[in-house]
């Protein structure tokens, strides 16, 4: 046995059997001794017969392998089963199969490495043997492996220097926009638009508005955005100012013009169809044809449909919570040229103070908001009311600009106009009429005047009466007072110019004579 060991030692002088390895070899001999005849021996991983007799076949296998110092560390032994093999089934020593190279920058995205060697297997035994003989595979192996790690230690996950960290794009407010998720199928344009809403929209509105929802649909819009800009909804029991109560009583008066009978309303099939569910365009088409008139080009009144109001006419209290730019489905006001033919000089001097939109609609007073309902629409009168609050307050704001100019006049003829405006939020079955006014220098109030169930003939006829009376008030009394106010402003402006001219010092006769004497003579 000593000879065998010395032979093995001459083959690999660096090999030393650790205490643990010697104990495992003795246990293997004890377990296998009963199964092997005396002339057979069990082969150890280092090519030494456990019975003290060298195995010739094993020696030949070792001779066939290049035993150079550079290649010896690449040897790995694969042992099948939990125990050592008999001599008849000799252990085969092979080169390890090289691992395919992988890019270091992918280490971040791969799953944690699972150790190849299990602590309870023979593979662990061979691995420990390689460690005990001082394998220097770390020096010569170029593959990206886990040789420096024990079986129980995870592989460290490090980023390669060439892999930059992911950069997020940022919106106009400086908030990070998350990257587009990996596609799991086809997506509609609506889904993409909803997902691409910037995060800053949540912070600037001061609420948790869902992506894709308009500002007027925000549950906090009325309580936060409108209130922050001094726009309030009044409760029914709150009293209204005297000039507002008088205006409401005026539009409640009966009319002498012809109107449909209750029977005709009951037999109106189109009106009945609206109660079964209709889209917003169908509701617009019906009520534009039966209740809301459209005026000719050269008429004093003008109706603009679905035109946004100018930003400078929307009430703004310098708050971070803004009022949504109104986009009324219908807006009544005046044709700036045909309604004020004698006041053009004054209007020109006022710039665009009186204009509501790019259609040159002047001094608007009546806002209408439609909503679809039923299977073809998802109308909400709460949202429509939010739109009325912003739109009507903007109309009041334009009229108050005129009152501000009138308040600076010293003439006894000056009379402030009633700056109130009306609005309607409606769908195919219901309509709500509101009136808005400016309470003081800051606050805008809106109150409900009436509500109507449109399939009831009496409610339908009442609704029609209110609408036409509001339009008549705008075309008659209100327009005349605005014209008078503009004439007053023009007269006051001319008076100031005349007074300024009179106050200017005129050259005296003495100064004229002195200037003549001071002239050099043309003679001599």
Automatic annotation (TrEMBL):
InterPro entries (alphabetical): DUF7924
Region (Disordered) residue spans: 1-45, 59-84, 172-191, 497-524
Taxonomic source organism: Lineolata rhizophorae
Organism phylogeny: Eukaryota, Fungi, Dikarya, Ascomycota, Pezizomycotina
Protein name in UniProt: DUF7924 domain-containing protein
Residues annotated as domain DUF7924: 280-483
Parts forming coiled coils: none
Ranges of compositional bias, category Basic and acidic residues: 75-84
Superkingdom, taxonomy of origin: Eukaryota
Pfam family, one: DUF7924
């Amino acid at each position: 046995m000593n000879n065998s060991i010395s032979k093995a030692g001459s083959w690999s002088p660096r090999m030393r059997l650790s205490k643990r390895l010697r104990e495992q070899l003795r246990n293997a001999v004890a377990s296998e001794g009963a199964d092997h005849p005396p002339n057979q021996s069990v082969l150890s991983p280092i090519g030494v017969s456990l019975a003290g007799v060298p195995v010739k076949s094993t020696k030949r296998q070792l001779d066939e392998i290049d035993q150079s110092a550079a290649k010896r560390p690449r040897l790995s032994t694969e042992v099948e089963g939990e125990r050592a093999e008999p001599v008849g089934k000799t252990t085969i020593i092979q080169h390890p199969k090289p691992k395919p190279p992988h890019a270091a920058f992918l280490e971040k995205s791969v799953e944690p490495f699972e150790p190849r060697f299990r602590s309870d297997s023979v593979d662990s035994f061979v691995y420990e043997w390689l460690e005990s003989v001082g394998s220097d595979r770390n020096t010569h192996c170029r593959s990206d492996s886990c040789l420096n790690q024990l079986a129980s230690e995870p592989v460290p996950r490090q980023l390669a220097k060439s892999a930059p960290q992911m950069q997020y794009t940022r919106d106009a407010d400086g908030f990070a926009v998350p990257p587009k998720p990996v596609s799991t199928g086809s997506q509609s344009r609506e889904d993409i638009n909803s997902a691409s809403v910037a995060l800053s929209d949540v912070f600037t509105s001061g609420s948790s508005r869902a992506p894709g929802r308009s500002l007027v649909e925000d549950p906090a819009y009325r309580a936060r955005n409108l209130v922050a800009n001094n726009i309030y909804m009044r409760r029914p029991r709150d009293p209204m100012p005297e000039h507002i109560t008088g205006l409401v009583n005026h539009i409640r008066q009966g009319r002498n013009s012809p109107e449909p009978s209750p029977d005709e309303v009951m037999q109106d099939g189109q009106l009945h169809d609206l109660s079964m569910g209709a889209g917003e365009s169908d509701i617009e088409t019906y009520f534009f044809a039966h209740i809301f008139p459209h005026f000719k080009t050269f008429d004093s009144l003008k109706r603009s449909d679905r035109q946004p109001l100018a930003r400078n006419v929307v009430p703004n209290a310098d708050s971070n919570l803004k009022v949504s730019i109104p986009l009324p489905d219908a807006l009544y006001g005046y044709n700036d040229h045909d309604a004020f033919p004698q006041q053009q000089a004054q209007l020109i001097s006022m710039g665009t103070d009186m204009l509501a939109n790019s259609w040159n609609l002047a001094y608007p007073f009546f806002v209408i908001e439609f909503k679809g309902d039923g299977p073809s629409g998802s109308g909400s009168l709460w949202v429509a009311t939010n739109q009325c609050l912003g739109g009507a307050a903007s109309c009041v704001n334009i009229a108050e600009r005129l009152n501000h100019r009138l308040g600076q006049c010293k003439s006894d003829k000056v009379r402030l106009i009633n700056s109130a405006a009306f609005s309607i939020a409606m769908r195919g079955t219901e309509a709500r009429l509101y009136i808005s006014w400016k309470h003081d220098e800051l606050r805008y109030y809106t109150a409900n005047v009436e509500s109507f169930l449109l399939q009831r003939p009496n409610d339908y006829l009442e609704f029609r009466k209110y609408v036409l009376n509001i339009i008549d008030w705008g075309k008659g009394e209100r327009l005349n007072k605005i014209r008078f106010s503009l004439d007053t402003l023009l007269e006051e402006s001319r008076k100031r110019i005349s007074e300024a001219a009179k106050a200017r010092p005129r050259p005296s006769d003495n100064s004229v004579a002195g200037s003549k004497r001071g002239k050099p003579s043309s003679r001599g």
